[in-house]
Amino acid sequence: MSQTGTSVLIADDHPVILKGFRTIMEDAGVETIHEATTIVEAYRSFYRLRPAVVIADLTFGDQGISGLSLIRRIRTLEGRTRILAFSMHDDPTIIARALESGATGYVLKDASTDEFLKAFDHVRIGKSYLDHEIALRVAMLNANVQPSPLASLTEREFQVLALLKDGHSYQGIADTLTMKYKTVVNLCSTIRQKLGARNFADLIRIALKAVS
Q: Where does the record place the Response regulatory domain (predicted)?
């Protein structure tokens, strides 16, 4: 399918992935391709350029699943924008959160080039896209079949949990997310209660298992 005239913004903090995206998009006939490597740069680029399609990773550096907030802000600013979330996260709860935030489609980073282009073609014309297996897993969430322990967490709690998993201290999390130390402590206490963690070590164990 010809992509002539379609403008695309690719938001990912890995140079190799950005280069790969650009090559795939150019081979598919996309003429206007913009790149961003941070959440702030991505939002500013979108605000200034208003591309038709945004391809956004969910994880930027040590900021946890911050791509969810980017998707939500873009969708709030321009409801017609097509957004394809492209991530390593295959947890159905995270995928559902991305769709709830405003993603038009979701594809995993280990997908083939053909699958990625299929997802892009769907999203470009405003059609939703999920791999069949992923769609079934997301649907199972609503049927309460083996619900993920992450289901009850807010977006901010997701970010905190992901940073804990990566070995950040409370102060490190506070600095990364521009929060007060006490707020981080309170959030971690809330996360422990929601996930049924007995202590801090148990919370880390759950984080390592749940946030892959």
A: 7-124
Residue 1 lies in a domain: no
pLDDT one-digit tens code per residue, 27-79: 888 889 999 998 899 999 999 999 999 999 988 866 667 788 899 999 989 88
Three-class HEC string of 163-206: HHHCCCCHHHHHHHHCCCHHHHHHHHHHHHHHHCCCCHHHHHHH
CATH number of the CATH domain containing 177: 1.10.10.10
Contact partners, residue 22, CB within 8 Å, separation at least 6: 10, 33, 35
Is 17 contained in some domain? yes
Contact 66, 60 (CB under 8 A): yes
Torsion (CA) 70, 74, 75, 78 in degrees, nearest 10: 180
Prediction pTM value: 0.68
* Structural domain that includes position 200: 155-210
